[in-house]
Design goal:
7-stranded parallel sheet, UDP-galactose 4-epimerase, domain 1, binds uridine-diphosphate-N-acetylglucosamine, alpha/beta
């Protein structure tokens, strides 16, 4: 395939891996990012992997004039993959308005610009958080969307509704992808997750503890109704996830979508407990690190994993990489950051 694809949040964790996959498939990529939670040097790292430099526009989606200018500058954009959003669950509880303002204004501005073009094809970054604790596992796309546990989760639910309603009454075609738990890093060791400050998510916390940046990992809760008492999640390699975005976009560009707004789960279909994740990391890295149990983290669901049948059948996509490969790539990335791949400020301890 060819043509221009706009990737909002393209210097972020999932966005950067998706830019590489788009380039591999022949697309010309334009990144829009305000660098609020990412690093400009990611553009160089993408270029090192693919040999192709993506166009980069530093802009905030909340600034509609800036977004309009970008659409005018590049013209003829085949599709948009929209990642740019705030994503810290706890922070969203503390600062709800900031989350609603950023995530929803950004989406609406972007959609306004898209609707002014002849082609309006959008792949949206959604989350399994919309299911809350599902009544049945594995969870299918038909499961009830539960009341969101956090403003962050609510922005994903509202965004899906805005996209669905708008696509239904315009020339927009859209696919929302509900991610389970993306982890791991690019096989080259040049791209990965770059948490600022203390990580919220499990795997960056594990790798930072294993490398000595954190004293110990806290495992939140050992009294859940699961075989070992810890929560179960469906971890998926970020490169598998990135590849799914490209096939979703291709589906829209080829007009193969069966509805104006389609929704797919992206997971592996397998659930692993926190303790299983720790063991997989230790096996993959050969490093044993400190951890201890504490109480449950408010808002955590007990167990969730995906039914991926729909994505397998309709997108012709299936996650390929297993948990140990996810962990070994995450570990390689942590070691590369520690060795200064992004410069020295990233390996200073900030406990
Ligand atoms: C959360 C959100 C998800 C969001 C993702 C990215 C929910 C239900 N899920 O996923 O929508 O896309 O963050 O920010 O809101 N854990 C520990 N110790 C830690 C960190 C995590 O034990 O230091 C445990 C958690 O309790 C959980 C598992 O590890 O059982 C995974 O946690 P995490 O990586 O934070 O992801 P989620 O909470 O599943």
């Amino acid at each position: 395939m060819s043509g221009k694809v706009l990737v909002t949040g393209g210097t972020g964790y999932i966005g950067s891996h998706t830019v590489v996959e788009l380039q591999k498939s022949g697309f010309e990529t334009i990144i829009i990012d305000n660098l609020s939670n990412s690093d400009i040097r990611v553009v160089d790292l993408i270029t090192r992997i693919s040999g192709k430099r993506p166009a980069f526009e530093m802009a905030d989606l909340c600034d509609i004039e800036a977004v309009k200018r970008i659409f005018d500058t590049y013209g003829d954009i085949e599709g948009v993959i929209h990642f740019a959003a705030f994503k810290a669950v706890g922070e969203s509880v503390e600062q709800p308005f900031r989350y609603y303002q950023n995530n929803l204004t950004g989406l609406i501005n972007l959609m306004q610009c898209m609707l002014e073009q002849s082609k309006a094809n959008m792949v949206f970054s959604s989350s399994c958080t919309v299911y809350g604790q599902p009544d049945q596992l594995p969870v299918t796309e038909k499961a009830t969307v539960k009341k969101a546990e956090s403003p962050y989760g609510n922005t994903k639910q509202i965004s899906e509704e805005i996209i669905g309603d708008t696509a239904g009454k315009s020339h927009m075609r859209a696919i929302s992808l509900r991610y389970f738990n993306p982890i791991g890093a690019h096989e080259s060791g040049l791209l990965g997750e770059l948490p600022t400050g203390v990580p919220d998510n499990l795997v960056p916390y594990i790798t930072q503890t294993a490398i000595g940046k954190r004293a110990k990992l806290t495992v939140f809760g050992n009294d859940y109704n699961t075989p070992d008492g810890t929560c179960i999640r469906d971890y998926i390699h970020v490169s598998d996830l990135a590849a799914a975005h490209v096939v979703a976009l291709q589906r829209l560009l080829e007009g193969e979508n069966e509805k104006k707004h389609e929704i797919f789960n992206l997971g592996t279909g397998k659930g692993y407990s926190v303790l299983e994740a720790i063991r997989a990391f230790e096996k993959a890295s050969g490093v044993v690190f400190n951890w201890e149990f504490s109480g449950r983290r408010p808002g955590d669901v007990e167990k969730v994993w995906a039914d991926t049948t729909l994505a397998n059948l309709k997108l012709g996509w299936k996650a390929q990489k297993g948990l140990e490969e996810m962990m070994s790539t995450a570990w390689q990335w942590e070691k590369n950051m520690d060795a200064g791949i992004l410069g020295n400020e990233n390996n200073k301890p900030d406990m």
